[in-house]
Amino acid sequence: MAAVNDDNGDTATLHYIFDPMCGWCYAAAPLVDAARGVPGLKVEFHGGGMMTGANRRAISPQWREYVMPHDRRIAELTGQPFGEAYFEGLLRDTGAVMDSEPPTAAVLAAEALREGGGLDMIHRLQHAHYVEGRRIADADVLTAVAVELGFDAKAFASNFARLSGQATEQHIAASRQLLQRAGGQGFPTFVLAHAGGPASLVDIGPWLGRPDEWKAQLATFATPPQPASTAPACGPDGCAI
């Protein structure tokens, strides 16, 4: 359980700690979409920078052999699609680099332009990566994806430039601190917090591939516990304080 506090007025918050190049985050994408439809629940994203700095990685035959069994397991478990353009295109593109920082900056830029735009961007980038086999670490691809989502190209490019570098690094550092405080072990991690109260980790394992059931259950999770009644309990022999 996490000792994380959150303050969102009367709204519960589901914190989604993710990475745009994390296969299991893609597995959880339908759960994130379902959570966005739960009344009274806000979904906040936190990019953890799984492949940044020394962890950036060029596509190689070894990388393809490593990720493909995991990807096929995700597809089997959740029904999430993986395209031939990914398996036979991107995963054979040894000129491509897996770098989480540019797509994370793109997510921040989208959110700066439109509330909820960051989550829209995460979803679209996951599809671009795992289905369309596109290089989502490339700035021109990120701009094209933003335009596909309805963002103005110049406005997006301006915000992307402003939020790249230090701002994205600070966001990643804060996300990692949240992950540590929450007691999460990796990506994705979900933390549910009620306004002004403690937060707790949410185990999504049982819900993968079951977004409708998850949404129904999450609606109950998102309802804050009611305070115990302070009325005296009365019986035939008197009332207890």
Short description:
With 241 residues, this protein is of the alpha+beta class.
Distance between the termini: 33 Å
Unreliably modeled segments: 1-10, 228-236
Describe the sheet with the most strands: 4 strands, mixed
| CATH H-level homologous superfamily name | Glutaredoxin
Average pLDDT score: 90
Radius of gyration, CA atoms, in whole angstroms: 21 Å
Name of the level-1 CATH class: Alpha Beta
Q: Give the overall shape.
A: globular
Record the strand order, biggest sheet: 2-1-5-6
Number of DSSP strand runs: 8
**Tally of discrete structural domains:** 1
Oligomer: single chain
Name the CATH architecture: 3-Layer(aba) Sandwich
What percentage of amino acids are in beta strands?
A: 5-15%
CATH topology: Glutaredoxin
The share of residues in helices is 40-55%
The ordered H/E elements are EHHEEHHEHHHHHEEHEE
The total of helices stands at 10
